Amino acid sequence: MPENGETAPLLGEGIPNLARTGNLERETPADRRRRLATIRAVVYTVLTVVFVVALASVLFLWDKITGVVGHLPKDPEKAALYILNNAPVIDGHIDLPILVRSAFANNISAIDLEKPFAGHVDIPRLRKGKVGGFFWSVYTDCPHAGSEGEDFLNATWSVRDTLEQIDIARLLVQKYPNTFAWTLKSSDIKAAIGRGQIASLLGVEGGHQLGNSIQVLRTYYDLGVRYVTLTHACHNAFADSCGIFEDPKPYHGGLSKLGYALIDEMNRIGMLVDLSHTSDATAKQAIKYSKAPVIWSHSSARAVHDVPRNVPDDILKFIGFGQGQTDAVVMVNFAPFFVAEPGKADVKAVADHVDHIAKVAGKRHVGLGSDFDGIGEVPVGLEDVSKYPALVAELYRRGWNAFDLAGVTGGNLLRVMEGAERVAAQMQKAGIPPAATKYDKRTDL
Ligand SMILES: [Zn+2]
User: Fold this and answer.
1) Is the CATH number 3.20.20.140 carried by domain 89-429?
2) Is 353 a catalytic residue?
3) Active-site option among 208, 298, 305, 365
């Protein structure tokens, strides 16, 4: 074996050693043929490798590659997961605390949310459904007929029960610190999602839960509540309700004087005005009057399914960024009796509501407010919190793009919250004092 590199062939048998020969022009025709054959072989090898990699990419890595460069997979289910991984669901209304009250007498020690849990919500299903946050509804029933007395004056027990509901929600958030994050501002929600946690906020579902007191509103805010639904299914001292299936006879004709004062104070402190459950007159007056963007935390479209709990087109038209319009988000309710005729509620029917609200109010004004754990029945294909991807996939199939879908899943709500936070900051900077408005029917003050 030659040891001397100078004399051994350095580039393989028969390949001229250019370091030694120094000049290609001196090669023989046979050397030249061999050299060109070698170059051809190398080029063909490289091209073959490139082709195989490209083919493998197309066949096996297409979704990943297109995702990275900003295009979505063609498969709607895969596209939905890609969107939700980047823009998870922030649900406007989940009733877990009332389930804990009714089924476990407020004892959270009896509950393990890390295992399959009764109802529609537990941690494994929240994770599977790509949930990045939700409003824990802290709800108490409307007073039974007559129990609150004339002018709603005896309904103060509702404040006690609401405080108990707030306690349940807070304790459950604390019980799972790796999963849930207590959030108070839109920036907190984004930060929690960034850490992989589920942002947790509170929503009070009815003005009757305020005990006729604007001071209670401020106290709820301090406890973490970020929206108050002006009414539940009953009229109260602040506003008229739409009832459940039949519009009841109006009491105030929309907002009362106290109701207007309530909205002023909600705007000032940054509490979102929620118009689900309100009468049409209440909603029209409130959306016109509120300085801050408003929400419907769990309502669908009346033009798609005609029940009073759904939002009619003549109110959807007040929503927007134009003249005479207010920014808002209508978060679509999944309750089958609000979605479609009996037996017809499914993913497509819910998507019809999203589509309709988007068509009339705009894609930037629709969101999701499932009402999970507050509804006995569920739509086919949207049985619990693990199923949001099916709805996103259905909308994608209908031509919604990633940007608009990210708005539906949570972005639109965040924008509305930011708007309300801005208005509150401006009003507080302007020195507007806390409201001291008293319910004029009260005799104790
Ligand atoms: Zn409700």
Assistant:
1) yes
2) no
3) 298
Confidence of residue 227 (pLDDT cuts 50, 70, 90): very high
**Burial class of 381 by CB neighbour count within 10 A (0 to 12, 13 to 18, 19+):** middle
Tell me: the pLDDT tens digits for 51-107? 555 444 444 443 443 344 467 899 999 999 999 999 999 999 999 999 999 999 999
Residue 407 is classified by DSSP as I
298 C-alpha to ligand 1 centroid (Å): 7
Catalytic, 205? Answer yes
The DSSP result for 21-54, as a single string, is: H--GGG--HHHHHHHHHHHHHHHHHHHHHHHHHH
CA 187 to chain centre: 14
Q: Which of 371, 373, 404, 421 is catalytic?
A: 371
Could you say which of 93, 120, 305, 356 is catalytic? 93
Please report which residue ranges of 195-332 form alpha helices under DSSP H.
Answer: 214-222, 257-269, 280-289, 313-316
CA-based nearest residue to 239, from 254, 222, 221: 254
Domain with CATH 3.20.20.140 in the chain: 89-429
Find the catalytic residue in 120, 208, 277, 353.
277
Average pLDDT value for residue range 6-16: 36
Region 172-177 average pLDDT: 98
Query: How close is the Cα of 137 to the center of ligand 1, in Å?
Result: 9
Catalytic site includes residue 93: yes
Active site residue 252: no
Active site residue 144: no
Pick 39 or 331 by higher pLDDT.
331
